[in-house]
Design brief:
By secondary structure, the protein is mainly beta. Helix content is 4%, strand content 42%. The longest helix has 9 residues, at 219-227.
Amino acid sequence: AEVAGALPGTLFMWGKRFTGNDVIGYCDKTPVEPGMQQVAHMAFGDSVGAACDRRGDVYWWGTQAAAGGLPAHANKAQLVLGGKRIVKVACGVSTSYALSKNGKVWQWPNTDPRAVREVIVPGGLLFGGTAVDMATCASGEHFLCVTSDGRAFAMGNGERGQLGNGDSENKLDLTPVKLPKGASIIKCAAGANHSILLTKDGTVLAFGADDTMQLGQGRETINQWRKDKEPLTSAIFRTEPFKIIIPPSLAYDRAKCVAVAAGHDFSAAIYEVEDKPNCLVSWGNGWRKQLGHKTDMHMSAPRVVATLQGKKEWSEKKQEVLEMGVKSVACGHEHMLALLENGALMSWGGNREGEVGNDSRKDSKTPQLIMPLQRYRVNAVFAGSRNSAAIIEGPAEHL
């Protein structure tokens, strides 16, 4: 399907259709353009969505919005948080969050977006610390927060150790994650029952559920599975952060991680190697081929997505052919999206609701170009349980 001309900041969405949100612009299989423009960031929950525009106002919609006593048209992207200079939003199963430019965090229940309250971030001199990143999962019930001084905090469901504070209890307020000595955190990602942290020196830490090898612990997890009488229903989890095992080739090149992402029960990271294009690695549950390795096997340790390597394009500026690296990645329930450096968007994995965007509901075992968006340069990409979205920066251009 063709898409209409789009201005910078236009949001395209595809995949699972939330009840009553046709005006937002969802379609079943291929990207379509919604009414909102100048979008800066967005997120999907299990049955809700949120977006903040470049003014910092938050719009919110979904099947649970109307249940909160809002007007009948509340599932048509209603303004729920204005004047707070929001730069990032996140939506979970029951709660949505917003991060402001000045480091404040706001939350509201998905059943009533009018009940907005500020989350007190620990630290600081008087009222709290300054948050620089946050994360939750569309299919999860826990929340992560990273502060400007390199600390990490978590709250919510902690039954599988996903809060990283040394126990498996639920927490109503933000509690410190037990970080390795000297670790300074800059980014975070949340799966349904596991968590990923990125340190300032490019190290990746993981904790929480490891029943599908989503913590990237390699042989150690496999050995634990062998001891378990029912490995497919394993209760393996870690309550404190551990370093993931990286591929030997990346270790040899002294690669540094620059971005992390988490799906329902799998994980991904982008590594930067000197004089080489950025590469994507993935691990965890692969049964719907969401890891991009041409197989439905689980991966106990990160493995380079080789099918994304070797993508080349002619550079008008440098007058030579350049290999394109991976700029950003987003993970859904069973699918993954990768944005290349030239603004091209690739997708693969489970496709029950058309979330891969290949004009079908057939799973894709390898990365495929999302054809309806090939005329545009994509600036940012997002994934929900069975949804996908992209923000357009302008027309496609060469490196």
